[in-house]
Amino acid sequence: MMRLRKAARVILVGAPGVGKGTQSERLLHRFPQLSSISSGDLLRHNVKQRTPLGIKVESTMKAGLLVPDDLILRLINNELNQRGWLYSNHPAGNVMTLASCAAETQSFSNDADMAAFISHPAHARGYGSPSEDPSASFLLDGFPRTATQAERLDETIPINMVVSLKTPLAVIMERISGRWVHEASGRVYNTTFNPPKVAGLDDVTGEPLVRRADDSEEVYRQRWKKFEETSEPLLEHYARKGVLWEVEGMSSDEITPKLMREFERRFAE
């Protein structure tokens, strides 16, 4: 385990199946000051807690609509602020704390009021500056996915390292084609590197394993293509900012040592 000398604000970018989750877990284990912040977890938490923002999120999702960027940014800003990792530049003090409290407690008479609160510059845009304390270090997962979202995020939370994880398509295809799942428990096996003791059966229960529908070659190729289209401008955005670092490997175990070395070089004592 290593200590950080300054705040790391990090995003991992990689195609589905490239091993983002594995690399995140390994970074979090090696650097205890790092936290994981997931936009999906924040959305689910706010929905479960029935906060005004959560109620808005739930109604948006039930209507089959995408959750607006402003709303996700608001949730991320709230989370960082509640942890004490965002400072206001406003002479009156930490106004973002007031905004956060309002977001948790304020009720809105209609959607227009909510929209105005979320997108108002005093609350949502360019209002805080991030703490450089090493304990204010995080991996941000699930957002941003597009260059437009990244530009909005820059206004409040300038990311200082973006890791682009690269593994050849053929290697990922082989990985996915060998993947089998025990549906009830979520246990995942792979005929190449983590096979079940008895082919086609779960080690614990002996029940049959199944293939996920989205593990088909055709479905994965579509997901890969979509990822390439959206990630290219995102990575270009961060390359212009000077914070993009690319790493390639045939497996997670090949990528991890390279990633750890670079992370230590940038942030560790």
From TrEMBL:
Residues annotated as binding AMP: 39, 44, 65-67, 142-145, 149, 212, 223
EC number: 2.7.4.10
CC per GO annotation: mitochondrial matrix
Entry GO MF terms: AMP kinase activity; ATP binding; GTP binding; nucleoside triphosphate adenylate kinase activity
GO BP term, example: ADP biosynthetic process
Chain positions recorded as GTP binding sites: 17-22, 179, 188-189, 252
UniProt xrefs under Gene3D superfamilies: P-loop containing nucleotide triphosphate hydrolases (3.40.50.300)
Keywords: GTP-binding, Kinase, Mitochondrion, Nucleotide-binding, Transferase
Enzyme class: transferase
Catalytic activity: a ribonucleoside 5'-triphosphate + AMP = a ribonucleoside 5'-diphosphate + ADP
InterPro entries: Adenylat/UMP-CMP_kin (IPR000850), Adenylat_kinase_CS (IPR033690), Adenylate_kinase_lid-dom (IPR007862), AK3/Ak4_mitochondrial (IPR028586), P-loop_NTPase (IPR027417)
A Pfam family it matches: ADK
Location of the region described as NMPbind in the Swiss-Prot/TrEMBL record: 38-67
SUPFAM superfamilies: P-loop containing nucleoside triphosphate hydrolases (SSF52540)
Domain Adenylate kinase active site lid: 179-214
UniProt-annotated stretches for the region LID: 178-215
Location in the cell: Mitochondrion matrix
Keyword Zinc: no
Domain notes: Consists of three domains, a large central CORE domain and two small peripheral domains, NMPbind and LID, which undergo movements during catalysis. The LID domain closes over the site of phosphoryl transfer upon GTP binding. Assembling and dissambling the active center during each catalytic cycle provides an effective means to prevent GTP hydrolysis.
Family: Belongs to the adenylate kinase family. AK3 subfamily.
Chain's role: Involved in maintaining the homeostasis of cellular nucleotides by catalyzing the interconversion of nucleoside phosphates. Has GTP:AMP phosphotransferase and ITP:AMP phosphotransferase activities.
Subunit structure: Monomer.
Name under which the protein is recorded: GTP:AMP phosphotransferase, mitochondrial
Species of the source: Cercophora samala
Upper taxonomic lineage: Eukaryota, Fungi, Dikarya, Ascomycota, Pezizomycotina
